[in-house]
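Reagents: none. Just compute today. Steroid 5-alpha reductase C-terminal domain-containing protein.
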Amino acid sequence: MLGIYLSVFLIQFVGFLHSAFLIKSKRYYDVFGCGTFVLVGLLSLVKNYYYEIEHIGESGYVYGLRRALIVSIFIIVWSSRLVIFLNDRIKRNKKDKRFDKVRNNPKKFFIYWFMQSLWINFTITPLLLVTHQHFSISLSLIDYILILLWSTFFTIEAVADGQKTLFLGKPENKGKFINQGLWKRLCRHPNYFSEIMMHWIIYFICFRGLDSYWYKFISLISPLFISFLMLKISTPMMEKISDEKFSGNPQYQEYKKSTYKIIPFIN
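Predicted 3D structure written out:
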C-alpha cells in the first residue's frame, strides 16, 4: 500500500514538472489526476483477478475479491467520466478558471498538484484496504442495494453535468444561471451532492468487507475528505461567484430561497 501512495505522489510530481516547466500549460492536470485513479483501479482489477484464480473454491477469498473488483470498477468508471467531462469543458471555455491565480507561479501551482495527490490517496484508501485484506464476507442484499444506489448517483451526476453543459451552450442563455432540471428539482449543486454520496457508498461497501475496525476507521478519510471538499470549498466558492454575478437579479434570489443548496431537504 505504501508503494501505491508513493507512486501517486511521484506521478503527480512528474505531471507538475511536465506542466510547469516543459510545456508550461495546465492542460494535463486533470488527465494526470483522473488517469492515476484509472491506473490504480486497473491494477486492483488485475491483482484481484489473479488472486481469484489462485483461490478459486475458497469462498471467503472470492467474495472479498469480488467486493474489491466492484469498487475498482466504480473508481475506473467515475474517474474516466470525470476526466472526459473536465477536458471537454476546458476545450469549450478555452481556459480553466481554477488556475487563473497560479498560471505563472510554479510554487503555487505545485500546491495544486500536491493537493491532487492527497485527494487521490485519500479517495483510494478504502479500495486499497479491502484489496489488501482479500478475505471478506459474502455480498448480501445490502451490498447490492448499495451498488444500485451508487449507479443511481453516478447517473445523477452525469445528467446534471450534461444539463448544465447544454444550458450554457445555448447563446440565449449567455449570462444566465441554470435553474432547470436537477439544478432546480434536486438542489443548486446536484453534481456535488452526487459526488459526496458516491464516495460514502463506496466507503460502506468496503466497510462491510473489512474485518479490522482500524481499517474501517482509516477508510473514513475518503468520504470525509470528499464531503469537506464539496461542502466547505467547492460549494462556497461557486456560491460566491454566483452571488456576485447575479446579486441584482431577483429571479436568482428567489431561486436560492426555493431550491436546496447541496443536500436535499437541508437548506
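The chain is about 75% helix and 0% strand.
Action item: order primers for follow-up constructs.
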